[in-house]
Each structure stands twice: as structure tokens, then as C-alpha cells.
Design a protein that fits this description.
The chain starts with 8 loop residues before the first helix and ends with a helix. The longest helix is centred in the last third of the chain and has 17 residues. With 159 residues, it is of the alpha+beta class. It contains seven helices and five strands, in the order ααααβααββββα. It folds into two domains: 54 residues, no CATH class; 85 residues, Glutaredoxin (3-Layer(aba) Sandwich), CATH 3.40.30. Bound molecules: FE2/S2 (inorganic) cluster. The site of FE2/S2 (inorganic) cluster has 11 residues, from helix 5. Keywords: 2Fe-2S, Iron, Iron-sulfur, Metal-binding. Belongs to the complex I 24 kDa subunit family. GO terms for molecular function: 2 iron, 2 sulfur cluster binding; metal ion binding; oxidoreductase activity.
Length: 159
């Protein structure tokens, strides 16, 4: 078994730039590799695809999926889709933002948590739904959310 070296931004761009509609696959691949789109990537992509940096920045900011800063140890995604809204996700969202002291697409100052929005986690009947890293949690009340924060926070310390 061979160990694969991580790809550089230039490797990723060079490997995908000839595909039709290359920008989105490039952005996805960079975020997959680094966890976010570093500022330095924008110039490399723009030059390679013969677009302006403003155009690349525009696409990055249009899609909420893309992050422009390093994520925290744990990524929390709150479902904002309709079924979860009808089960109270709006008030959970307000609580989460206050509790963490951040808005969507930001990371807490201790770098433990990043907060993002998501639109359906396939757990609609059990909303409000939250995904923390790869774990989906249903029926997330404010109290349950706080317990989850403590639980994952403890994982950060022991990791
Ligand atoms: S609407 Fe939230 S999980 Fe489907």
C-alpha cells in the first residue's frame, strides 16, 4: 500500500482545469483537501482559468458550502430546511449563534466549533436536525444542543 502525498492547490487546479465548468470541481477539491478555500488559492485559480479574482471570490461567496477560513475542531451544521423549521429550528439557530458567539460560516475564537447552515440532512421527521462532524442528531432541543457542545468540547480536549 502506498501513502498518498496531499495534493497542492496547483496540483488540484492543474488536474481539473480542463474539465468543462472546472471552477466548482476545483473549489470542492480544494475544500476537501484543506477544509477551506485559502486566500492564496483564489489567485492561482483565477490565473489558471483566465478569470478575475473578483469572479472567483463571487462564486465562493455565492455558495454557502465554501469556507474561506480554517474550520474548528468540530463542524456544526444546523438544518434550515422547511421540515426542521416547522419543528423549531429557527429558535435553535438563534440559541446556537448566541451560545457559540458566532454567526454561520464562522469559527469560535477557541477554534473548537464552526457553525454552518445545511438544507436537509435526510432526518426530517426527527427535526430539528443537526450534524456535528459526521454524526446526525435529531430532536435537538436547546438543552440537547448544549449537552452536545459539552460532549464534543470534551472530545477536543482529549483528542
Ligand atoms: S428538513 Fe431538516 S433534516 Fe430534512
Amino acid at each position: 500500500m502506498t501513502i498518498q502525498e496531499p495534493l497542492s492547490i496547483t496540483d488540484i487546479v492543474d488536474g481539473l482545469k480542463h474539465k468543462p465548468g472546472a471552477l466548482l470541481p476545483i473549489l470542492h477539491a480544494i475544500q476537501e483537501q484543506f477544509g477551506f478555500i485559502p486566500e492564496s488559492a483564489v489567485g492561482i485559480i483565477a490565473k489558471s482559468l483566465k478569470q478575475t479574482k473578483a469572479e472567483i471570490d463571487g462564486v465562493i461567496s455565492f455558495y454557502h458550502h465554501f469556507r474561506t477560513s480554517q474550520p474548528g475542531n468540530h463542524t456544526i451544521e444546523l438544518c434550515r430546511a422547511e421540515a426542521c423549521q416547522s419543528l423549531g429550528s429557527r429558535s435553535l439557530e438563534a440559541h446556537a449563534k448566541t451560545k457559540l458567539g458566532i454567526d454561520f460560516h464562522h469559527t469560535t475564537s477557541d477554534r473548537k466549533f464552526s457553525l454552518d447552515a445545511v438544507y436537509c440532512l435526510g432526518n426530517c421527521a426527527n427535526g430539528p436536525s443537526v450534524r456535528i462532524n459526521d454524526d446526525i442528531h435529531g430532536r435537538t432541543t436547546v438543552d440537547k444542543f448544549d449537552r452536545l457542545l459539552e460532549e464534543y468540547s470534551a472530545k477536543s480536549v482529549s483528542a
